[in-house]
Automatic annotation (TrEMBL):
Keywords: Cytokinin biosynthesis, Hydrolase. InterPro entries: LOG, LOG_fam. It is an enzyme of class 3 (hydrolase). Belongs to the LOG family. This is Cytokinin riboside 5'-monophosphate phosphoribohydrolase. It comes from the Bacteria. GO terms for molecular function: hydrolase activity, hydrolyzing N-glycosyl compounds. One of its GO terms (biological process) is cytokinin biosynthetic process. Its EC number is 3.2.2.n1. GO terms for cellular component: cytosol. PANTHER family: LOG FAMILY PROTEIN YJL055W (PTHR31223:SF70).
Length: 193
């Protein structure tokens, strides 16, 4: 792995641990020589992780749609900035640039981004590791929902292993480095095995 895409809230959230762990993740990326790929904002947890990477002399690569958001301010100190036209282009570029994905706490956009890379992994578009940094139990309900969907027959049991979930950035990155994609299974239960 050379580059990790980090999905994160464009707001800092109300729990001070969110900010602290965004900074810890940034420092951990730098200590391992990993480059950051993210949405390019200076705001919220997005900005906190980028600042930690840049303060540690690491590389931070942003991808931002030109003129799409009034409130999302482009980080001025990035190593690289890729300007794109649409959100679809933004997400595709971030995926292409990255060797793995981590979601910090965030809102609907973060959920949408992480589920897109998980579903792409499920159908074999990529075989890159995907992690959730479960700060103060933030992603526990989401993991329970995935387990519930598995029990309900919508996600093959082996594919629940597509998502790595840890509360410590170092442990999560260790697991991502050692990641082996789950054995490819037929995701469509009504088709012949």
């Amino acid at each position: 792995m050379k580059r990790i895409c980090v999905y994160a809230g464009s707001n800092p959230g109300v729990n001070p641990l969110f900010e602290r762990y965004a900074q810890e993740l940034g420092k951990e990326l730098v200590s391992r020589g990993l480059e950051l790929v993210y949405g390019g904002s200076s705001m919220g947890l997005m900005g906190r992780v980028a600042n930690a990477v840049l303060e540690g002399d690491g590389k931070a690569i942003g991808v931002m749609p030109t003129g799409l958001f009034r409130g999302e301010i482009v980080h001025k100190g990035l190593t690289e900035l890729h300007e794109v036209l649409t959100m679809h282009e933004r997400k595709a570029k971030m995926i292409d640039l990255s060797d793995g994905f981590i979601a910090l706490p965030g809102g609907l956009g973060t959920f949408e981004e992480i589920f897109e890379v998980v579903s792409w992994g499920q159908i074999g578009i990529h075989q890159k590791p995907i992690g959730l940094l479960n700060v103060d139990g933030y992603y526990t309900p989401l993991m329970q929902m995935v387990e519930h969907a598995t029990e309900a027959g919508f996600i093959p049991a082996m594919q629940g292993e597509l998502i790595l979930c840890e509360s410590d950035p170092a442990v999560l990155l260790d697991r991502m480095r050692e990641y082996t994609p789950p054995v490819k299974v037929n995701k469509w239960s009504e088709l012949d095995k």
